[in-house]
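Record type: ASSEMBLY
Status: queued
Input:
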Amino acid sequence: MNAPTISHISCADCPIRHRAVCARCESDELEALDAIKYYRSYEAGQPIIWSGDVMNFVGSVVSGIATLTQTMEDGRTQMVGLLLPSDFVGRPGRDGAAYNVVATTDMVMCCFRKKPFEELMAQTPHIAHRLLEMTLDELDAAREWMLVLGRKTAREKIASLLTIIARRDASLTPRGAVNSMTFDLPLTREAMADYLGLTLETVSRQMSALKRDGVISLEGKRRVSVPDMGRLFEEAGDDSDGGFMS
Amino acid sequence: MNAPTISHISCADCPIRHRAVCARCESDELEALDAIKYYRSYEAGQPIIWSGDVMNFVGSVVSGIATLTQTMEDGRTQMVGLLLPSDFVGRPGRDGAAYNVVATTDMVMCCFRKKPFEELMAQTPHIAHRLLEMTLDELDAAREWMLVLGRKTAREKIASLLTIIARRDASLTPRGAVNSMTFDLPLTREAMADYLGLTLETVSRQMSALKRDGVISLEGKRRVSVPDMGRLFEEAGDDSDGGFMS
DNA sequence: CGCGGCCTTGACAATCGTCAAAACATGTGG
DNA sequence: CCACATGTTTTGACGATTGTCAAGGCCGCG
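Status: finished
Output:
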């Protein structure tokens, strides 16, 4: 039932070559990584790791999307991260996974067994530096999300999420500064709710409200059009557009 | 009006020597750090950095407590981190501060000008590694806090905060596994509210409720006694005590 | 004593969650 | 092709939690 195994691809041809943990590597360092890497694919919906499980690998998302979630005993769940292509999974220096990682679309990961990766990292400052840089970026993102979770209204939360997804989409397929955008929502209403600390009913209602007020329009349930990105940023309550318009 | 300048202290005598960014350094590396470090002190209430300001130093908290906050245009504010002794302030590789940093008690910091520190870090894997480790810990803490902000009730939020402070206090002054504890709350009700994504009135009400229900008792406004830590963990909704009881 | 912070408490309102029903899409098997 | 089952989304009615506004208490300090 697994997706087919992926054949070995040269790092030089890798689509995330310049953004992943290997971004700063020289060609010899890349060869060392190439020697220990392997690809794994996951189907949409498949769990990658359960919180508490022993993790004997780390890796980078090559394509597809995964979510990082935490759950309480009674089932309440909170998404704590969204993993997109080039994002790193796993923590060198720790055995157990701290979160559930689930593929929400079909996914391909570039994996390394943890032990050899840790050894290589100890000898390769370029990898360690890049990982530090990526971790600091994730920390900033997590802290920005704390403001969303702690202080924004349901409507602002939805607008904030749409803003983030739009921004990511724009960075993947640059098209210059434009005022309107259309993109796919890679999350179910429930996943959106788990990200935003809301119920799925509230998410649905606020999506309808934003549609009714002309901030967005929907084609099907998942495709979103934003006629005026500036308006969306205002709705998100952000004091700036995060450099989106330029 | 500033607190007096602190004289130069040898790293060997530093109280945070084994936990800060320099924890892994050998003696020669420590000498290099010692050569570029300087101490700064701040009085309770003083701002250390405003979000957006240029930051020309980084450093470690030696003593005292500071808060990291984000604010929206309309004044809503969310605390995104609590800086305790040994925590690192600033981000190598970035000029502007992303958050407001404010001393909530009298504080002493061990500072480095950013440029020399960055250069030293490039040559000293022990520093870079330790900083990565600390950043990963902070990321975990931020993600754990996302669950608190997104999914917990007001009562659970308060209990979670008390749990964290109790745990930190216990790690500073170890006393073995005990079932009851007393500690000082280093935050005003407003600061607690900003941490928890609540209003100060709700914080006050829930503190009163926990007192009424015998989960805590108060001596003055700031000193908290917990007769049964297990009960507090339950109230926090955590599925474990985080290794506190042992 | 009186002032200013900080905290508590009350009354009321607003937001968001809960429970329930129904619309809609998608896939399976007859 | 239809019937049916399943999963997702929308919408409504209602209730609970939390926020807002307001008043008053406690405490240290000039």
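Annotation: The helical segments of chain B are 27-36, 114-123, 125-151, 154-172, 189-196, 200-212, 229-236.
Annotation: The domain at 11-147 of chain B is CATH 2.60.120.10 (Jelly Rolls).
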